[in-house]
Amino acid sequence: MGLLSRSRRKDAKEAVSPRKIDLESGDLADALTGDEAGTTEEALDFEKPEQNVGEGGEGDVAKGTTLSKRKTGFRMPKLFGKAEDGPEEMKEPMERMRWWELTFSIRGFENVTVDTLKLFWTVSLGSDNPKKHRNRVRLQTKFTSIFTLEKGKVFTADNPIVLYERKTFALCYKELEKHVVKVDMWRVSCWTFNEYYGVKKQKLSQIANRDPNMELRILRKLSRKQLADKKKAKSVADVALYRCTVNLEEIFDFDLFCENWTLELGRASPEFKQMKEERKRLTFTVPRDRRTLPGHRGYLGRGAASQTVEWNQQDGRFFWPNCGKFVFRGTRTHLQNSYFIVSVLTGKPPTFLANNATIAKMEKHAPAPHRVLGRCLLNLTSVLDMSVFQGKVKRFTPDYERYIVGDINGNVKCILRSKGMKEPELDFRTNRPEQLKTATTVSHLNPYERYLVVRVKKCEALPVADFDTGSSDPYLRCTWDNMVMLSPVVKQSLRPVFNQSFYFPVRVVFPELRMGSKAEKKYQDSILKYELTSKGHIQIQVWDDDVTSADCLGGCQVTLGDILNVRATQKRTLLGPLAAEKKDDEDENEFEAKQEKHNQWYEEPRSVRVYDGSKTALGQSALANKDAALIHFEAYFYPDWAETLRFEDEVQEVDAESVWAKKEEEWNSRNMQKAEDYALPFPDSIGAKKPKEENMMQTADSLRRFPCIGLHPLTRIETPLMAFVSPIIIPEEWSFPAKLLEWVHCLSFKITQRQARIGLIPSDGWKDPEYVLARRKGAPQDHSVLLCSLLLGCKEDAYVVKGTVYSKDPLATMEKSDQLIEHTWVMTRENGWVTFWEPCSRQIFHLPNRYDPRKVKKKKLEQLAVKEEKEEEEQDDDADIERQQWEGEAEDCRVHLEDMESLPTVGRMPKPKTRSDKAKKKDEEPGRERLKRELIEQREGLPIAPKRKMLQEEQLVTWLPYDSIEVVFNDKNVWANRQNHHPACITYDLDDDDSSSEPAWERFLHAKDEETLHFQAICPNVSVQPELKPSIIDELQDDLRTEMMQNLQLYRGKKGMDTMFDHNEELMQQLRIFLDIHELWRQIDPDGPTAQRVLEEYKALPKDMPRDQMTEQQKFHRFVGDILKLRIWNRHGSPFFHSRKDYEKEQKHNWRTLEKLHGEFQKKEDSFPIKRGKKFKGFPVHFCTSDQESIRQYLMQIKEYKQIIDSDEEDVFYTIECRIIGRLGGILSVWLYVGIQEPQREADFLEE
Which SMART domains does UniProt cross-reference here (predicted)? Predict the structure, then answer.
C-alpha cells in the first residue's frame, strides 16, 4: 500500500509538473484532457479548487494548480469513479466547458435620490445563489474611488474606469444562467461603518447576448426585516443609474479556409504586358492569435502562419481554387480587429518545376526563382458575416503609376470551434451567445500599432426623428479605411453627450514602413502618402436608433490633410487630454481619494497634432430642423507622424468643384442644342422638351434633363454621378439575378415631398450605396444605385439609367391624368442582349440584339493598341533619325477625291448619266404627296428617328413601362442618349468612337478628360452588414402580430363589436407554409424554361376539371396558375439561362422546393384546421418595411382588408400570422396574412 501511494503521489507530481499554463492560449485545456487530465483529477481530488480559479489575464498561471499540488499528500482514494465521466466532446452541448473573456468599465452614474451621496462602488462576479449553486468563477472584488454626487447630478467619466481588463475564466453555457455580475453601492460615513446602500445583479447569460453598453438601475438594499415585509419588498426604490460597458465574449478557435482567389492585373500599369506573361503564386500570412505583432518578422510577427500556393496554370488566368487552412484563437472582437496579408509572387519558373506537384511540395526548402510583385492587406472585420474579400495589390515603389499592381479577390470561409474543441460541434443547434458590435475598447488595442483617434464629445440641436416623443435616440457611426465603429445609444436626447473615443489602427501593407522605421521617413512623401490617401476620408455620422430602419441625423467629413496640416501640437494620451488640461472649477473634496496612476502604454502623454472639430455643422440629414445641428469632436494620430508629413488636399477640392461646375455648363449647352435639333422634326415629342429648368416651379412635364452632377452627401460640393457608384462584393449565393433583385426590392421606398410634387430628382437626391444600406430605405434612384453597385461587384456590365415614365401624382387629392416624372432603373449588357432591371416592381425586361458585342471587344483592343503605340513612340523618340530624300524625289502626299477628277484618263470617256425610270415616276406624282413622302423618308433617316430594325417582329419586346431615356452611367463615365427618346427603339453601343460628329451616345468625359479630370468614389469600399439575428426577428414578428391584433380590436370596438381570434397551432402552421410558398415565389424567374413548361401544362388543363380527378402534378400547376398568377414577362426568354449554368440549377432547385411546399400544404387542404360550421378566407400581403405605423396605413388602403374588418357578423374569428425573413444588410422581407372564419350559409353549400 505504501508503494502504491508513493507511485500515485509521484504520478500526481508529474501531472502538475512545473509547466507554464496560459489561460488564453489553451494550454490548461490541453493539459486537462486525455489520460493526463484523468491522472491529474484523480490525484487532486481532495479539496481540489476550481479549474478556473484565479484571475486569468494574459500570461497568467492558474493559481489553483499550485494549491492542489500542495494538498496531494492528503488525498483520500476515490471510491465512486472520476469527477468527469469523459472528454468535453462526450458531454451535452450546454454542459461543455467554454472559455470566456471579461472586460468591465464604468462610463458614469446618476444620483436619483433626494440626498447628497458620498459613495463608492464594488463589482464582483459569482453565483446568483451560493447556497443552491456552487460558485465556479472566482475573481477578486474590485473597488472604485470615492465620489460625491448631489441630488439629481450625473457623473460622466472622461475616460472609462476599467475594473476588469481581459480576465479569462471557464464556464459552460448552462452555468451562465446561474452566475451574475454584482454591482454594490456603498455610502461612505466619516464616523460609523460604511452603509450597504444599493445593489444590482445582472446574469451572465443576459450580458453575453445583449448590448455591452448597459444602464443598470441600482435598487435600494433592504434589511432582513424589510425583506420579510412583502409590501416593502415589492416597492423597492431606485437610488442610482449606473452606466457601464461589460464585454463578455467566448474564446474560439476560428478555422479560416482561403478558397477561389483571383488576381486581375491593372491595365493602366506600364508593365501590364510583362506582368501578364509571367506566372504568379500567392503567399498568405495570417495571425494565430491577437498577440501577433504587425511589422515584425514574417510581416505579422513570429506567431503568424504563412503558406504559399502553387503557380497558376498556363491558361492566361490567375486563379487559385484552394489556398490553405489557418487557425486563429481569440474572441470575435480579436478576430475582427486582426488582418492578414496576401503577397503576390511573380516569375518564370521552368515548366517541369511549376507543374510537378511533388517538387512543388518541396519548394519551401529550395524555392523556385521569383520576386515579390506586390502585397495586399485585408482586414478581417467582416469575416464572420461575409466570406468575400477584395483589395488592391500594391508595390513598394515611389512611382505612382507602378504603385497599384491590380485587384485581388477571393473567399475566406470561417468556421468557429469553442476553445479546446478539436472538431466543430455538429450537435449544437442553438445560437451561441454574442453581444452587439460596438466601438473597440482600449483593452483590445495593440501597443505596437499607431492609431487614429476620433474623440466625440457631444452634439447639439439634432433633428427630431420620433415625432411621438419629440426626440431622437442618437448614436455615432464612424468610418475610416473600410472599418465601421458604433457608439452607445443615448435615449431620447437632442443634445447627447457621448464622450466616445474611436480607435482606428493605421495599418500599412509594407513591413518596411512599420512604425518608427527609417523607411517611414524616407518614403513619407511617396509610398506612405499613397497608402494613407487610399484609406479615404473620416466620416462621422449621427443616426437615430431603430431596429428595422434608421434616419440620419447628420454627418460630417474630415480629411487626413485636416489633421496633418495643423501647425501647433498638444499633449494627448490615447484616452484623450491630460488631467492637468481639464478645466474643473469645483473644489476637490479632501475625503475623495485620488485615482492611482497606472503606467500603461496608452496613458503615456505625447505631442500630437490635434484637429479641433468643435461646433462643426452636421449635414446630410433629410429631416426638418429649425436649428443648425452641431457636433464637437477632435481627431489626432497617436503616436503622431513626423512633422514634415503634410497633405494639401483642401485646395484640390475647391479646384475640383469649379472644374466640375464648368464641365456641367458645357454639358448643358450641348444638350440645349440637341433639344432644338430634336424639336424640328418631332416638335410634340418628349425629346423636344427643354433640358434645363428656367425656374424652380417647373416640373418634369416640361423638361427632359440630362443630369451629370450631384451634391456630395457630406461636403455638399458638386460631384460627378460616377462617384456615387462603387462595386460591392457579396457572397455567390446572393448574386443570382432573381434573388438579387428581390433583395434590393425589400428596401423600403421613401421619397421627399419635393420630388413627389415636381417629379424631378433633385441634385442632392443622389446617395451612395453605403448610406442607403445604413438607412435601409430610400428613393427609386437609391435602389438603382445600390443594385448597379451590386451588379458591378458581380462582374456585370451594369449602368444606372435615368429616364421618364408616366405615373399618377401620389400627392394629388383628386383624379387627374398621369404626369411625366423622372425615374431610374438599371441596365446590363450581355451577349447582344440589353436587360432592364426594375427595382420598384421587381421585374426584368430583356431586349434582344440591342448592341454589338464585337464592338466592345474591338474598342478594348484599340485602346490597348493605342497605349502600346504610345509606349513604343516614347521609347523610339530618341532613336528616330530623319530619313534623307533622294535627289529629285517627291514627297509623299494624300490624293483627295476632287484631285482624282482632274487627272488625265486613258481610254474612252464614260457615258453621261441618264435619268432612271424611278425618277420619271417621281415627276409624275402629285407635288404634295411627293413632298410628304420625301419628308417622311427624310425623318426616318434621321439619327433621332426610331430604328426600323427594332420595330420588326423578332426584335419587338413584350412591354416596357418607360417612356424616355436620357442618360446612363456607371463608376467610369456618363453617356447621353442622342437617338430617339424611347428606350425600345434605339441601340446601346456605348463603345462607339465618340470622335464622330453625331455619336449615338455622347460621353460626359472624353479620352482627354479622363487623363486630366480625376474623381474618387464617395465610398470606395462598401461593407454589407449580416442578416439580423433570429432572436431579433422573432421579437419583431411577435410585436407586429400583437400590434395588428390590438388595432383590429380597437377598430371593431369603436363599432361596438367583439373581436375573437383563432390561432390554433395547426392553422398557424398551414399559414406559415403558405407564406413560405409566396416568399419563395418572389425568387423564381418566370422567363425560365421550367416556368414556360409549367405554364403550358396549366393552359392545357380543362378549367372545369374536378380536383379529385387531378394528379398531384396537375394540382401544383393549377395552384401556380390560379393562386400565384404565373405570367411570362419576356416573349424572347431570358439570356441568363444560356450563359449561367448555376442560375439554371438554382431555379430548378427553387421549383422543386416550391412543389414540395405545395405538397405539404395540400395534405390538410381538405381538412383545413378551422372551427366547425365556418368557412375560411383571407389574403397575404408583402411589405418592404416592418414599421408598424406604415403597415397599418398600407393595410387600410387595401380593399380586401377593409371588407374583412368591416364584417357585421358577430360570430366570426380572425387569424393573423406574421412571417419575417432576414436579408443581408439588415433588410427584412415582411409577410402578413389576415384571415377570417365566417359562418357557412346554404348558398355556400349550393356553390360547392
Answer: C2 (SM00239)
612 within 8 A of 634, measured Cβ to Cβ = yes
Distance CA 1069, CA 1217 (A): 10
**d(C-alpha 52, C-alpha 167), whole Å:** 11
Say if CB 239 and CB 185 are below 8 A apart: yes
Give per-residue pLDDT as tens, 221-251: 888 777 777 566 667 888 999 999 999 999 9
Residue that wins the pLDDT comparison between 170 and 46: 170
- Say which DSSP state 701 is in: G
The DSSP letter of residue 948 is S
676 — phi, psi (to 5°)?
-65, -40
Note whether 1175 and 1241 are within 8 A (CB).
no
Residue 713 phi, psi (nearest 5): -60, -30
Letter for the amino acid at 805? V
In this structure, are strands 777-778 and 748-749 parallel, antiparallel, or unpaired?
parallel
CA distance 929 to 984: 30
Comparing CA positions, the residue from 783, 768, 726 lying closest to residue 390 is 726
Provide the 3-class DSSP secondary structure of residue 111.
Answer: strand
Count of helix runs (H) and strand runs (E) in the chain: 34, 44
Contact call for residues 1039 and 1013 (beta carbons, < 8 A) = no
Q: How confident is the model at residue 47 (pLDDT cuts 50, 70, 90)?
A: very low
- Rounded CA separation 369/365 (Å): 12
H helices present in 764-803, as ranges: 769-775, 780-793
Confidence of residue 50 (pLDDT cuts 50, 70, 90): very low
Sequence-separated (6 or more) residues with CB below 8 Å from residue 763:
707, 709, 710, 711
Are 408 and 388 in contact by the 8 Å Cβ rule? The answer is no
Q: Which three-class secondary structure state does DSSP give residue 1158?
A: helix
Per-residue pLDDT tens digits for 808-842: 655 444 444 578 899 999 999 998 899 999 999 99
- What CA–CA distance (Å, rounded) separates 747 from 781? 12
Instruction: Out of 92-106, 876-890, 1035-1049, pick the least confident.
Output: 876-890
Q: Are 498 and 457 in contact (CB under 8 A)?
A: yes
Of 194, 188, 196, which is closest to residue 220 (Cα–Cα)? 196
Per the DSSP assignment, residues forming a β-bridge with 1091 are none
Nearest to 286 by CA among 260, 269, 307, 272: 307
* Beta carbons of 82 and 116 less than 8 angstroms apart: no
Phi, psi of 276 (to 5 degrees): -70, -30
How far is residue 1136's CA from residue 845's CA, in Å, rounded to a whole number? 12
Strand, coil or helix: what is 628?
Answer: coil
Share of the chain above pLDDT 90, in %: 37
Cα separation, 95 vs 174, in Å, equals: 6
In angstroms, how far apart are the furthest CA atoms of the chain? 137
More confident residue, 1067 or 699: 1067
- Full DSSP string of 330-372: E-HHHHHT-EEEEEEEEE---HHHHT-HHHHHTTTTSPPS-EE
List beta partners, residue 1214: 1061, 1236
Q: What is the pLDDT of residue 3?
A: 35
CA distance 120 to 491: 26
With beta carbons less than 8 A apart as the criterion, state whether 176 and 202 touch.
no
Tell me the C-alpha to C-alpha distance, in Å, between residue 1090 and each of 506, 847, 1103, 1126, 1143: 53, 21, 22, 12, 12
The Cα 1210–Cα 1217 span in angstroms is 21
Strand partners, 662: none
CA 1009 from chain centre, in angstroms, equals: 33
Stated as kind and residue range, the H or E segment containing 1003 is strand 1001-1003
The rounded Cα 15 to chain-centroid distance in angstroms is 50
Extract the C-alpha cell encoding 1083. 425568387
Cell numbers that stand for 700 in this block: 418634369
The reported pLDDT for the residue numbered 844 is: 93
Are 860 and 797 in contact, with CB atoms under 8 Å apart?
Answer: no
